[in-house]
Amino acid sequence: MTKIDIISGFLGAGKTTFIKKLLQEAVSGEQVILIENEFGEIGIDGGFLKDSGVEIREMNSGCICCSLVGDFGQSLKEVLTTYHPDRIIIEPSGVGKLSDVMKAVKDVAAEIQVTLNSAVTIVDAQKCKMYRKNFGEFFNNQIENAGTVVLSRTDIAPADKVDLAVEIIRELNPKAAVVTTPCDELTGKQLLEIIEKPDTMEEDLLKELKEHHDHDHDDDGCGCGGHHHDHDHDHEEGSCGCGGHHHDHDHYDHDHEEGSCGCGGHHHDHDHDHDHGEGCSCGHDHDHHHADEVFTSWGLENVSAMSKETLDRILDELAYGDGFGDVLRAKGMIPGMDKGTWLYFDLVPEQYEIRDGIPEYTGKVCVIGANLKEEELKLAFGK
């Protein structure tokens, strides 16, 4: 079955650069056909695409949204039946409505074996506010119908403009994946994975926790999302059980014999009162609550660069303290202070780890638990 990807965006947003990256780094082994339609212009960058061995079907007689019923649909069928490609990339006019292009593809899919694989919108981070003001419904339509929104020129745009662009996009489309990392720091394969598979980090973590809380609590489960670990920390050796991060807690001067956990200055009792196995620190009797009643989640994207030391302090409080509420699970990918470095973390109660990772499409954090203190979390991870 032929996959169809629609890469939309206003003129000059960076569609061709994005498509070129996909062609060169992600789908070079596939038979790919690009359908272009630039309003009132000769097909753009046809040269490099032909040099890449990609078949091009140029339709420059008019805007794609003005010829959907006839020319576009017929041309798409012709391409499919003639070439039987693995993938078709459609680059519609910058002033077209994404929903119209998607409808045309779905109409063709009713007759021919094709699938609408992805709908992407490229937005210039510096012009997002202006485009929304000047182009109204056309700009809104491209955002509202996209599965992924890629912000271009984030490497040269002021941080406040990038933040505003994300805010505008989120207002129009809360569900789309929003790429804020400069595309030259991501591989074509990463970009293809992003547009083909929606971000499910929050859903995955919630599913993990729900499955754990829905199982038989008679086993030794700790309610920490499937990670079983020993809560009997040996504080005499300075180990805090935080997932590979061994801190010297002596400088906090805790008296461990009185139940203090050596967790960065927070004195609290680890003998949680729960009816099942080891305590999960969520403050609920799970014999009388369903998972949906117990869990709440908080997330943040476009998280700013952070040092490993700062992240370590935040995670120490998340894992051992109560300054952010009763945290059951947290996960994130955050840019480091040095360009190109990224910090990945996973956290369950009284255990966490920080590791180096590859650039992600945006800095993001997800925290799941009960009684979460969202303002404190935003202050910790926000700007």
Structural overview:
- By secondary structure, the protein is an alpha/beta fold.
- The protein has 2 domains: 2-198, Rossmann fold (3-Layer(aba) Sandwich); 200-383, CobW-like, C-terminal domain (Hypothetical Protein Yjia, Chain: A,domain 2, 2-Layer Sandwich).
- It is built from 11 helices and 12 strands.
- It has helices at 15-25, 46-51, 68-83, 98-109, 128-144, 159-172, 188-196, 201-214, 291-294, 308-320, 374-381, and strands at 2-9, 32-36, 55-58, 87-91, 114-124, 148-152, 177-179, 296-301, 326-335, 342-348, 351-357, 364-370.
- It has a 7-stranded parallel beta sheet with strand order 3-2-4-1-5-6-7, with helices on both faces. A 5-stranded antiparallel beta sheet has the order 8-12-9-10-11, with helices on both faces.
- The longest helix is centred in the middle third of the chain and has 17 residues, at 128-144.
Which structural class is indicated by helix and strand composition? alpha/beta
H-E order: EHEHEHEHEHEHEHHHEHEEEEH
At CATH's second level, what is the architecture of the largest domain? 3-Layer(aba) Sandwich
Helix content: 25-40%
Low-confidence stretches: 39-47, 59-70, 216-292
The tally of helices reads 11
CATH class of the largest domain: Alpha Beta
Q: Tell me, what's the shape?
A: elongated
Name of the CATH superfamily of the largest domain: P-loop containing nucleotide triphosphate hydrolases
CA-CA gap between termini:
45 Å
Mean pLDDT over the residues: 75
CATH fold annotation of the largest domain: Rossmann fold
Radius of gyration: 25 Å
